[in-house]
Specification:
With about 425 residues, the chain is α/β, with parallel strands linked by helices. It is built from 6 helices and 24 strands. The strands form 6 sheets. An 8-stranded mixed sheet has the order 10-11-13-12-15-16-21-22, with helices on both faces. Strand 10 and strand 11 form a beta hairpin. It is globular, with a radius of gyration of 22 Å. The chain starts with a strand and ends in a 10-residue tail after the last helix.
């Protein structure tokens, strides 16, 4: 019989779900190269390949057969062809722009381990989708709010979360969308560089974010009495500011966030928090021309920079800090530890801190390939994000479970069965 690729689920899966890959109909112990390809919406190509040897029966199951050295990864990695995807264009990060259409994954099996590839033996296509059937995507343009609300199937009400990304701006929807697949009402909120919002990160007014919180608290499909906040990078310190000054927030989860206000002045009523100072002379440029910016920000515990430390002790919520210990954007672990000290010094509950060795700055939903370096809007050149691909992939899988368990526990009162690894 001719070789063929067997996938489970066969035709379509959610992007954050595992995909079982096997090849049947090969010769006994036949050597082959497997290649995965995916194009983003701008047409940029991402690829990964691995060398394998079929079993004595001509079967090759990636869950049982280790990849041999020489490809994008080696060892027993059932999802390696997805997490090892790399852009053909340097410094390009995989993001999903339109969550209503799937990514198309192309899988190919070639004869032998040679370069260039041998004869094509089998190929298959698979859709990696973002919206589960029945999830509703609702564009929100109420007052000043520029956002998209994702509502799970069913009548609700559902536990509500506001999701914020970082300095990239715009309105990324993919994390909010994937999270809503698990029973949360999630508002992906834009805060600059989108439609009629400010074009640059100069200053932010918490009143805008308060409008979004009130929108969620008043929504008939959102289960009260409070909501959750989820923020990555700059979105993390905005979430801490929201939790510190605004009412109605029960749980705040930060992915590599800062406890100091960064990058722009923050205003709320008569309060002004200046941005943390920085020194661009501390940027290190490597041989490859990539900037290492991890030491650029000043210490928020020293001198006038103490004014940028967000008063998170005012918050009436529980905190979860997700930390990539190889974050090269800024000192996420230091920020989490200092936030914890500050909370406890004011008699508040100790936050949960989950640290991942070998994980970089962009801890995304599961199976997004690690982005080691890409353009930084504020620095104006490519910067290192840190991370080691396999460890980073494992961190993304675990962090995704941690985040859901945290919100389930604090927004619904139902404990979840996940246990974290510290």
């Amino acid at each position: 019989m001719a070789p063929s690729i067997r996938l489970a689920p066969a035709a379509r899966s959610l992007f954050d779900e595992p995909l079982a890959i096997a090849v049947q109909g090969l010769g006994p112990r036949q050597q082959v190269t497997l290649r995965a390809s995916l194009r983003d919406e701008t047409g940029q190509l991402f690829q990964a390949s691995a060398h394998y040897q079929a079993g004595d029966d001509g079967e090759l199951d990636l869950a049982r057969c280790p990849a041999l050295p020489g490809g994008s990864f080696s060892g027993l990695e059932p999802m390696g062809l997805l997490w090892a995807l790399q852009p053909q264009k340097p410094f390009w990060r995989l993001v999903k722009r339109d969550v209503q259409s799937p990514f198309l994954l192309q899988l190919e099996v070639f004869e032998g381990h040679g370069q260039p590839s041998g004869r094509l033996l089998a190929q298959a296509q698979h859709e990696r989708a973002f919206l589960r059937d029945g999830v509703r995507r609702v564009p929100v343009r109420e007052g000043r709010i520029r956002a998209t609300l994702f509502l799970p199937p069913g009548n609700g009400p559902f536990p509500g979360i506001i999701d914020l990304y970082g300095t990239g701006g715009g309105l990324p929807e993919y994390r909010a969308c994937l999270l809503s697949n698990y029973g949360f009402a999630v508002l992906a909120l834009a805060f600059y560089s989108y439609e009629d919002l400010p074009k640059e990160m100069k200053e932010f007014h918490l009143e805008y974010f308060e409008e979004a919180v009130n929108y969620m608290l008043q929504h008939t499909q959102v289960k009260g009495p409070g909501i959750g906040l989820l923020g990555h990078s700059k979105g993390g310190d905005l979430c801490i500011s929201m939790a510190s000054f605004l009412k109605g927030i029960t749980a705040t989860a930060l992915i590599n966030g800062s406890v100091a206000n960064v990058g722009a002045v923050l205003r709320y009523k008569d309060i002004t928090i200046p941005p943390l100072g920085f020194n661009s002379k501390r940027i290190k440029i490597g041989k490859s021309g990539i900037a290492d910016v991890v030491d650029v920000l000043n210490n928020p515990l020293e001198g006038p920079d103490q004014q940028s430390f967000i008063p998170l002790e005012k918050a009436e919520c529980c905190f979860l800090f997700i930390v990539g210990q190889d974050d090269r954007n800024w000192k996420s672990e230091f920020f989490a530890v200092e936030g914890s000290k500050r909370l406890q010094a004011h008699g508040k509950e100790k936050p949960e801190i989950v640290c991942y060795p070998g994980a970089g700055h962009y801890i995304e939903p599961p199976f997004f390939p690690m982005c080691a370096a890409s353009m930084h809007l504020l620095v104006g050149k490519p910067v290192e994000w840190g991370g080691e691909p396999k460890a980073h992939c494992e961190a993304q899988i675990d962090a995704w479970q941690q985040i859901q368990a945290f919100f389930r526990k604090h927004l619904t009162g139902k404990p979840s069965g996940t246990t974290g690894k510290l």
